[in-house]
């Protein structure tokens, strides 16, 4: 039951948390606008980005974990990127049971075109934070990831 005491204890944090959520919406909206100008979704761009920057072969489940989408959603996303000739699915060089993803020449060119304005935007955001701020922010994100995983486990157990 919500009491005045509980409300008083949590009000400041609730307002700060809401502010975080609202700023994240703004960031997502800005990203969506930028990527849409290249006819990509946020998830599609990040899929291409991870393939572009990875030194290891990545499969569909690797990317799904990195961009936090379900395996089913990943399949549709990869189908769209493959249809646009931005990536291809190929057999893993050491394990033919596995599929890895490779950027096509078109995919590589598109990422190379997107990266300069993306990094310009990112640098603008980064410049207002000191190294200490960035380290603290990273530790806060890790704490959020851990508590969200814990909450999801609790929710999974109670929904059975």
UniProtKB/TrEMBL annotation:
Mind telling me which PROSITE patterns this protein's record contains?
A: HTH_MARR_2
Give the matching Gene3D superfamilies.
Winged helix-like DNA-binding domain superfamily/Winged helix DNA-binding domain
Q: What SMART domains does the database record attribute to this sequence?
A: HTH_MARR
- Spell out the InterPro entries in the cross-references: HTH_MarR-typ, WH-like_DNA-bd_sf, WH_DNA-bd_sf
Q: Where is the HTH marR-type domain?
A: 1-146
Please name one Pfam family that this protein belongs to: MarR
Q: Which residues does UniProt call coiled coil?
A: none
On whether Disulfide bond is a keyword of this UniProt record, the answer is no
Task: Report a single Gene Ontology molecular function.
Answer: DNA binding
PANTHER family for the chain: TRANSCRIPTIONAL REGULATOR, MARR (PTHR42756), TRANSCRIPTIONAL REPRESSOR OF EMRAB OPERON (PTHR42756:SF1)
Q: What is this protein called?
A: MarR family transcriptional regulator
Q: What organism, scientifically named, is this protein from? A: Paenibacillus silvestris
């Amino acid at each position: 039951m919500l009491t005045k005491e509980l409300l008083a204890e949590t009000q400041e944090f609730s307002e700060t948390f809401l502010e975080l959520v609202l700023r994240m919406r703004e960031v997502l909206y800005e990203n969506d606008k930028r990527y849409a100008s290249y006819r990509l979704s946020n998830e599609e761009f990040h899929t291409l980005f991870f393939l572009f920057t990875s030194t290891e072969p990545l499969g569909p489940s690797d990317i799904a974990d990195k961009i936090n989408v379900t395996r089913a959603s990943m399949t549709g996303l990869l189908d769209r990127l493959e249809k646009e000739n931005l990536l291809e699915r190929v057999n893993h060089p050491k394990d033919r049971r596995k599929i890895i993803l490779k950027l096509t020449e078109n995919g590589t060119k598109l990422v190379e075109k997107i990266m300069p304005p993306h990094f310009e935007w990112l640098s603008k955001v980064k410049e207002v934070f000191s190294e200490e701020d960035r380290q603290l922010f990273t530790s806060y994100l890790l704490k959020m990831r851990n508590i969200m995983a814990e909450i999801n486990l609790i929710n999974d157990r109670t929904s059975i």
